[in-house]
User: Fold these one by one.
Assistant:
Number 1:
Amino acid sequence: MRGVRWSALPARMRRLGRAHCAEAARATVAAGLTWQTCTALLHTPGPYAGAVAALLIVETTVVRTVSAALRYGGGCLLGVLVAVPAAWYARPQAAGLLLVVFASVLLARRDFLGHHGIHVPTTALITFALVRDRHSGELYSHLAEIVLGIAFGLACSALLFPAVRVRSAEHALEELRTLVARYLDALADTVVDRRPPRDVLGPAWEQNLDRALQRARTAVDEAHESVRWNPRPAARRRRWHLDHRVLRTLSEVADELTATGRLLDAHPQAAGACAPGTAFAQPYARLLRTTALCAYSCRGGRPHPALPATRRALTRLGTARHGPPTTGTEAGRLLRHLEAALSCLSAPPPAPPVRTHRALGPLRPSSRR
């Protein structure tokens, strides 16, 4: 497992470097276009406010850029709304300045602005100084630069090859599928040999499974975020409800796998109470290996063809045991965990969306003769 992570590290670094370079290129183009436009239209010799706005709102995905633009613009608007009344009516000037600073800092601490809350006091102080000294033209020019910077930042983020993080999510899901299947197959070996799973999987197998689940959840969430409001064709063609369904199914199977492993750690002989190769241990091990195959084939389409036969074999194995029922024993608990995992894998695929068309009303005879 550690070797796989180290071997995949150069590829991850390359993907991260490409993403950062693309984001820097979009921010650079947005700042340059803002500077040239402000110079040409507003006749501003140094439109730093617009260039800074374009730089600060460009993010990795379109959704994050829109969110940053709303927070940046909201912070600047709040700063203006706080400063203008104070500059007009507050007397003396020092009292107005203190009032502006106090109110703007309180608004900047609000969570809905995030780290863009710093623009509330900065814009408020600039606005207060310009309005107090009767420089309304410079204030309008300053605000126009910010509006142009936000507009060019949004345009460049949406049009200049926005990121679609599909392959990283696919790699994370493939890693999770492989790990779940490998652990299920290793549990089958522990059942036959009557050994604790920690001796076969390693002492940190649960932590490895949790980290793989967390990486898959993060990658799928980032990929889903990258395709929202993304005009690229690859983003519009992606069916992300399948990936969420695959992740949910693998998470449930991983939970049952963890419960089975903990039970076998506490009772290594739970599946073979008599001797190795008993009538329960070998069939149960085969069912675990078939479940591993079905888990590796979980890719959002139809369930694996072996699933119905596996569930029937599991039912026969549960009813073939003589004596008291297995619901209260360790073997019965093993069967319940496996049944729950197979139920998760047997879920039917989602139905394709049905396009509804407006029904035409029945033909009515005309009243005209």
Note: Residues 1-9, 322-328, 353-369 have pLDDT under 50 and may be disordered.
Number 2:
Amino acid sequence: MRSSLRRLATQAGLGEVHRVHHERRSVPVLLIAKLGLDWAMVLCLVRALSELDMDPGARPVTVLLWLAVSWGALAYWLLARDGRRWFAVCDGGLLVGTAGTGTIAIAWHAVQGLTPAHGPGIRHGSLRLSWLDGGKQRYVTFRTMTDRAALAEAVEDKHPVPMPSRRRILAGPGIVAVASVVAWALALSPLADIVMASRPYYLRDLVSLCPRATADSGAAYPESAAYSASAPHPAVLFAEEHDSDPVVTSTGTGSDTPDPDDVQLVACSRLERRTYDTTCAFSHGLSVSYYRARYRVDVYEARTGRRVTGRTLDADNHLFCGGVRELHGKDGGHEEEVSVPSREDYQRILDEVSVGAGE
């Protein structure tokens, strides 16, 4: 853009271009706002992926995709689009342009000045640049402008206001500082551990340690609390008959639910076998077969994914044939129902694990 502006300024007889002001926030303000948006957006993405039960390995890809697209869009807006309107301050006057339209050349002797702008639809704090064009008054209105004070001073003095030398000196270090903040946030900050799935952000993230079927999950959270030899061992339990939220938790001290960072052990319950109990007949031709069941509760270390211990738990919560069954669909048919452990049973086992019983 600078080369085309120099050409336009020369053609208009305005001399050399000294500064260009764009109708947008200054770059430092935009970069600070962008870093704040990135921080909030990454947390939202992590939460969304957790709510959707996505594998923690999807986090780095999703976050890096967001950063690449959003920073690319910002770079395009800053470097290519250049804001909605721009003012180029030259030796002999101003060049005023808008993306996609022609450029207006205004000599200093034609400039009348800057005044506060008022009227319907005009935002508070807006300014109006007015000038004479063939004896007719023309004007443009703007509010947000990079280095607005310097532009106002140039119009008032009808002379370019040079950019302070310290601004040029700080431009390079400023870019390096922003890049360093981004690198720190991605690689060294607590947020980086969450993005890279090195530590859990929610308790439900720990469900990834539970194996699928009989295969080990291979998951681990290296930044989780270390599993020490002495109790207590804060723990959380997941069961395949429930969703991905923890069924019960235990701190081993009787206190409230542990923080995700403090969890040392993850217990995973799955159906090991079922045994036929009885079949009950209900109205409308419906029959239900009930099964007693045995569940396997395996306990894994959150930090390494290593299996620590295991328990078995028998469930038989069918008492007798009776009551009312809700029909789903047509009358008749056959259903099966497998007994599941109660939350009290799960809590008892997890409390034992938390205090180190049976290790």
Note: The radius of gyration is 34 Å.
